[in-house]
Write a structure and sequence with these properties.
This protein has 14 helices and no strands. By secondary structure, the chain is mainly alpha-helical. The protein has 2 domains: about 1-75, no CATH class; about 100-310, Orthogonal Bundle (MetI-like fold), CATH 1.10.3720.
Amino acid sequence: MIAYVIRRLIQSFVVLLIVLLVTFTLPYLEPGGILAPAYIVLGTHANKVTVAQWGVQHGMNHPFFIRFWSYLTQVFLHFDLGHSFKQNMSVWQIIALYIPRTVWLALTSLLLTIFIAIPLGLVQASRRNTTFDYAATGTAFVLYAMPSFLLCILMLQTFSFGILHLPAQPPSGVAPWAMFTDPLPFVLPVACLTLLGVAGISRFMRGTVLEVLVQDYIRTAKAKGCSKRQVLFRHAFRNALGPIVTILGLSLPALFGGALIIESVFNYSGLGIQTVNAAQLLDIPTVLGITLLVSILTLMGNLLADIALGIVNPRVRVEAR
């Protein structure tokens, strides 16, 4: 197990380097090249001499691989993500300010998704081809195919401007734990992100349980006189939980991606809307820092999912080779 974890850490580090390389290369493809952020900082009327001086001041006159090596050294040896061109503050300060809001939003939605999607998929599998199964499957298909921004707009139109008159957006400048002290303004953002997760996880849970229910050991359990509840929870659920753990680990990128759209629609000051603003303003250090952070969280989620799979299902043995 230890050898497997070490190997996965090395693989994750290689993937992280590739992500950083791609993200670091993208600004070179801008119409203004690597000096395009200078026109955002200095203004569109800045002359070429001023732009060139700004580039020299920020080390953008060096060749690509020298700049990339300097950035890797800065990040991994000195833990310095750089300084924001536009906001005039370090990238660590920006991340420390906004990431708790996004993390609480994503974790709350993930917990609700688990508590709703797994029992829902289990009940659907046990009541296959019934009216409840058809209704839940149809709803899941609609939610799974619906773009996240469209779901947010429909939820706003229905529950904020229509039936319940819920707050259309959380208050600005609130503390990260405000969703627990004043949860009403966060109902719609959390509900939208939860529904997007429930649609996919419940369908996967239903299919996995149905595959387990036709196995020989399920027939053996029924032949021994186990009740339907015992067969479903003691045998089918435990053996179907392994793939679900893996899917939950892989759902972290979708959570952060969905949070980006939802924060933009509901005007919630989190990491997602800061990523959009930084990309629009060509704030390269901020985009690189946020991309690095989300990549690390995604790779950690995948690694923890693989480890949890071996814990949940003892029959799974991770080989050292």
